From TrEMBL:
<dbReference type="Pfam" id="PF06050">
    <property type="entry name" value="HGD-D"/>
</dbReference>
<protein>
    <submittedName>
        <fullName>2-hydroxyacyl-CoA dehydratase</fullName>
    </submittedName>
</protein>
<keyword id="KW-0479">Metal-binding</keyword>
<comment type="similarity">
    <text>Belongs to the FldB/FldC dehydratase alpha/beta subunit family.</text>
</comment>
<dbReference type="GO" id="GO:0051536">
    <property type="term" value="F:iron-sulfur cluster binding"/>
</dbReference>
<keyword id="KW-0411">Iron-sulfur</keyword>
<keyword id="KW-0408">Iron</keyword>
<dbReference type="InterPro" id="IPR010327">
    <property type="entry name" value="FldB/FldC_alpha/beta"/>
</dbReference>
<dbReference type="GO" id="GO:0016836">
    <property type="term" value="F:hydro-lyase activity"/>
</dbReference>
Length: 395
């Protein structure tokens, strides 16, 4: 296929947290607000005068210093973030909006708060409590938390306009990003898609780590380009898979899967678009903050929700994705020592195959993918098993 016009530029933006668009926005006087979790609504961080940056640790090789503070028995993701912070990689941040969700990212953010790691005199870290259930009380509690720990702090510290009118403008911008990403991602449903899973992974990531108002023109051009982009005459892949799991902000992991012959057609993982790129609907007479709070609780597929009926809904959601995107199997990954996703991965491996008849490949990996040889062997064996299944079924 013809190369996407902006792909190399997008790849370059992912090389550092403090990328060129972040620097441009900072030079224009905007405040950079870091976050690590879906439960910190990015739309609130993209109010006029500030912008959200979902934190990553690109090219981190060995979090030795962070391991001293956090121990070797914690998720590599949280340690890699702290390592990058200790190296000065997040000194551009004006605030970190933390959530009481994942234990390891909480510890990372506590270190930012207590150790004076970020060399920025304006920097502060604020924690928001997130409920474990999807009930009316949960919506009320979450909404109050977002008001007290996000909107009030942004207004108090930086003079950000947090009025309903400002929130509605931020929602409008957020929804345009969602529409573009969903349109781009929908090409993966085609029998012979004109976009690879790797390309989509890169595009989705830049929409999370760059100021929205600066990345939007590039997303619009890319969506327009894909409307006429011709796919390869013959499909380059041997099967299609859904990739599900924990934090996955490394397009190289998707690229590794696709180099083995399986196209990643759906991204149901942390930092992915499913869920993550659904538009926020504000009903008549509803406050924008209430709409935002309900949206993020209702759309989340995070395994920290442990009620039985919610857990079953997550399995059904994955099975529905496999059907919608014509996937032949599902790869479920979790970072080593990730408590929530280790349980979820184990359950998915059994339930999805037993109850839905979907082949599943279960992977435990490090945030830093040093074991690419072993992973390649596992993926190749999984792809071959799918091909054998197709032959046996006469497909």
């Amino acid at each position: 296929m013809r190369d996407l016009k902006h792909l190399i530029y997008f790849e370059d933006l992912l090389q550092e947290a403090n990328n060129s668009l972040v620097k441009q926005a900072k030079a224009e006087g905007k405040r950079a607000i870091g976050y690590t979790c879906y439960f910190m609504p990015e739309v609130l961080l993209d109010l006029e005068g500030c912008f959200g940056v979902r934190l990553r640790a690109p090219r981190c090789t060995s979090p030795d210093i962070a391991t001293y503070y956090m121990s070797s028995r914690t998720c590599h993701y949280g340690r890699s973030l702290l390592e990058r912070a200790l190296e000065g990689g997040y000194n551009f941040l004006d605030a970190q909006m933390a959530t009481e969700t994942c234990t390891v990212t909480c510890r990372f953010q506590e270190h930012l708060q207590m150790m004076d790691v970020i060399q920025n005199p304006d920097f502060f870290c604020e924690f928001t409590d997130v409920p474990f259930k999807k009930t009316e009380n949960s919506y009320l509690h979450y909404r109050k938390q977002l008001q007290a720990h996000v909107l009030d702090k942004l207004s108090e510290k930086f003079g950000i306009d947090t009025s309903d009118a400002a929130l509605l403008r931020a929602i409008e911008q957020h929804n345009e990003v969602c529409r573009l990403i969903k349109e781009i991602g929908a090409h993966r449903k085609e029998e012979n898609p004109n976009i690879t899973g790797y390309e989509f992974h890169v595009i989705q990531l830049v929409s999370l780590v760059c100021p929205k108002y600066l990345i939007l023109p590039y997303l619009r051009e890319t969506a327009e380009e894909l409307r006429t982009r011709e796919p390869e005459p013959k499909p380059w892949f041997r099967c299609k898979v859904v990739l599900s799991g924990s934090e996955n902000d490394d397009p190289g992991f998707t690229q590794l899967i696709e180099s083995c012959g399986a196209m990643v057609v759906a991204d149901r993982y942390c930092y992915g678009s499913l869920p993550g790129r659904e538009e926020i609907a504000v009903a008549a007479g509803q406050s924008p903050l209430d709409a935002i709070a309900r949206h993020y609780i209702d759309t989340s597929m995070c395994p920290r929700y442990m009620e039985q009926h919610v857990m079953r809904e997550r399995k059904q959601y994955l099975a529905d994705l496999a059907k919608e995107y014509n996937a032949d199997g599902i790869i479920v990954e979790s970072n080593k020592f990730c408590e929530y996703w280790s349980y979820e991965r184990t359950i998915d491996t059994i339930i999805l195959n037993r109850d839905f008849g979907i082949p599943v490949c279960s992977i435990e990996k490090e945030y830093i993918n040093n074991a690419s040889g072993q992973l390649r062997t596992r993926f190749q064996a999984f792809i071959e098993s799918i091909e054998i299944k197709k032959i046996q079924e006469g497909k």
